[in-house]
Write a structure and sequence with these properties.
This protein folds into 2 domains: 5-181, Rossmann fold, CATH 3.40.50; 190-402, Phosphoglycerate kinase, N-terminal domain (Rossmann fold, 3-Layer(aba) Sandwich). It has 14 helices and 15 strands. The protein has helices spanning 35-38, 41-49, 76-84, 98-106, 135-146, 181-195, 210-221, 233-240, 255-267, 316-328, 348-362, 372-380, 394-401, 407-410, and strands at residues 14-18, 53-57, 89-90, 112-114, 151-154, 176-179, 201-205, 226-229, 271-273, 278-281, 297-299, 310-314, 331-335, 366-370, 389-390. Strand 7, helix 7 and strand 8 (226-229) form a beta-alpha-beta unit. The protein binds adenosine monophosphate.
């Protein structure tokens, strides 16, 4: 077990907190969704109660090691200030400038300072000024950040799968470190789902590519009672069984692997549910996310798809079959949509699954949803409040499900 916020002494201390403020901005640099900022309030409020001086560190977008004005964290400070009802200081331009360091040095207990986008520095992501991988440059940057405070709190679940200066390297240069409340909550729900699951345990995996989720499927086959596969991923599995899939998205170089995973599931007696019917279309406009005029859309009789048609969503029989498993599950982990859900005509399977997961949760199941698309699907279905835990980190939650070590967590000291 890693140390968490209440295990370390933060009273009156200068506390560096890594947060995930990678928020969406519109063309006028207004924040269009502040849930990531709101998610950090419990940790910040606790630190304020402890009379700590808080230095917040974050990144926004992909500036690739250069200062990019549109990726400044400047708009975040007033929004955080609004949410907290307290002033938040901000030094524009450079997180480790003399001005930023002075602001950190002058920070009084109960005050908050937000540093500029850390990714304006290539060293944050482990590179030097020439753009080459350079661990010592990353360590030097981490040391500079650490010098501004005394203890470190990791509360950016969205970046814990990255071994960066502010997520992992910094821990070596501070007196003490711990996971913040948000990270603690993520680890609790994801960890309990994986290692302490109430049975039956069902995993629902969808999305575009098998290749992105191979390790997740492999790891979950050791943990779950059933796997439900939807989205384009399903067509690689179906094709590997000799079923025709028309023009559906298939990874032909993953057919053998798909076969192997099906074999492993059978050996482990894990139910492996693939769609038995599909919504298919002969044309899809992926760029504008719509069904082109004159396109034919139909539902197949069985699992095979005619030439010239593409599988775009799970059909009604599949949803019925998936429903049986979801309804009886006591633990559910879901990552990835079951169809091209951005197109309303092809979103039914994903929305139905979202409703089923919510119903199962109402009846006592623990549900964990991760990945940007599944999270928007539960919102679209209006059931987000009924899900046990919605992960704030798509990539991080996927790597957790793969059973991989998360560098931003591994770096933290263990509980005594
Ligand atoms: P991922 O990022 O791997 O979770 O994939 C999400 C994407 O998969 C979404 O943009 C979906 O539109 C896409 N997707 C889901 N089902 C299909 C399908 N049958 N054909 C093509 N794309 C799909």
């Amino acid at each position: 077990m890693k140390k968490t916020l209440k295990d370390i002494d933060v009273k009156g201390k200068k506390v560096l907190v890594r947060v995930d403020y990678n928020v969406p901005l519109d063309a006028n640099l207004n924040i269009t969704n502040d849930k990531r900022i709101a998610a950090t309030l419990p940790t910040i409020q606790y630190l304020l109660e402890q009379n700590a001086a808080i230095i917040l560190m974050a990144h926004l977008g992909r500036p690739k090691g250069k200062a990019v004005a549109e990726m400044s964290l400047k708009p975040v400070a007033p929004r955080l200030s609004e949410l907290l009802g307290k002033p938040v200081k901000f030094v524009a331009g450079d997180a480790i400038s003399a001005e930023a360091k002075n602001a950190a040095a002058d920070l009084k207990p109960g005050e908050i300072l937000l540093l500029e986008n850390l990714r304006f520095h290539p060293e944050e992501e482990g590179k030097n000024a020439a753009g080459e991988k350079d661990k010592s440059a990353m360590d030097a940057f981490a040391k500079e950040l650490a010098s501004m405070g005394e203890v470190f709190v990791q509360d950016a679940f969205g970046t814990v799968h990255r071994a960066h200066a502010s997520t992992a390297a910094i821990v070596k240069y501070v007196k003490d470190a711990a996971a913040g409340f948000l990270v603690e909550k993520e680890l609790k729900f994801l960890g309990e789902a994986l290692d302490n699951a109430q049975r039956p345990f069902a995993a629902i995996l969808g999305g575009a590519k098998v290749s992105d989720k191979i390790s997740v499927i492999e790891n979950l086959l050791n943990k779950v009672d059933s796997v439900i596969i939807g989205g384009a991923m399903a067509y690689t599995f179906l094709k590997s069984q000799g079923i025709s899939v028309g023009t559906s998205l298939v990874e032909d170089d993953k057919l053998d692997l798909a076969k192997e995973l099906l074999k492993k599931a059978a050996e482990k007696k894990v139910g492996f549910l693939l769609p038995q019917d599909h919504v298919v279309a002969d044309k899809v406009d992926f760029v504008n996310k719509l069904v082109p005029e004159g396109a034919q859309v139909k539902i197949t009789e069985g699992s095979s798809i005619a030439d010239g048609f593409m599988g775009v969503d799970a059909g009604p029989k599949s949803i019925e079959q998936f429903a049986q498993t979801v309804k009886s599950a006591k633990t559910i982990v879901w990552n990835g949509p079951l169809g091209i859900f951005e197109i309303p005509e092809f979103s039914k399977g994903t929305v139905e699954i979202a409703k089923l997961v919510a119903q199962a949760t109402d009846s006592g199941a623990v549900s964990v949803v991760g990945g940007g698309d599944s999270v928007s699907a539960v919102k679209k279905a209006g059931v987000d409040k009924r899900i046990t835990h919605i992960s704030t980190g798509g990539g991080a939650s996927l790597e957790f499900l793969e059973g991989k070590e998360l560098p931003g967590i591994a770096a933290l000291p263990d509980k005594k």
